[in-house]
Amino acid sequence: AQKVTQAQTEISVVEKEDVTLDCVYETRDTTYYLFWYKQPPSGELVFLIRRNSFDEQNEISGRYSWNFQKSTSSFNFTITASQVVDSAVYFCALSEAPRSGGSYIPTFGRGTSLIVHP
Amino acid sequence: EPEVTQTPSHQVTQMGQEVILRCVPISNHLYFYWYRQILGQKVEFLVSFYNNEISEKSEIFDDQFSVERPDGSNFTLKIRSTKLEDSAMYFCASSPIRGLVPNEQFFGPGTRLTVL
Cβ of B109 and A44 within 8 Å? Predict the structure, then answer.
């Protein structure tokens, strides 16, 4: 069974600080996908990144970076020089390989609420 | 850019009433999904739909729930007799291919269901 743990319920930072959101996952599969989604106060879910289990290369996209460590089953997300607009709930999710005929269904963590103060 | 749309944005209903939540997935997508998020909690999978039938469903998706693709564009979630605990945000999502590679699911903006 797949499980995603986001131990940080809420993080509060001041603008321009760097912040790392932790994500730890459990799976028995060797093939799986990890995701991060952003949910701003308006409520929609915004896709940020997908990473497959065979690609441990870290990724950077502007102020966002992701650190995938299979050895520790973690897929952490760092925002550099945070801004007020980064305030949102961030969800980490995991999809194991589907059963025959099925589709990849992500299991979401409980989310981390990030509050960036001006 | 194409997007998933959902209507209504907010639905208020009385306990025991039937509700239908509507979604228009992205036009060339083949897989459709419903998720729900109880306020302040994580997003939970309800059901996936492919080729006009349910592909997978979770334990939450009991006999009170049903999905339908009544025409070529809409994808609906019906809750037959709503309960207080059905109050949640309901997200529709679609993805473009069946799934050796799970291209990301594109989520709609959600429908907030309030059951009184």
Answer: yes
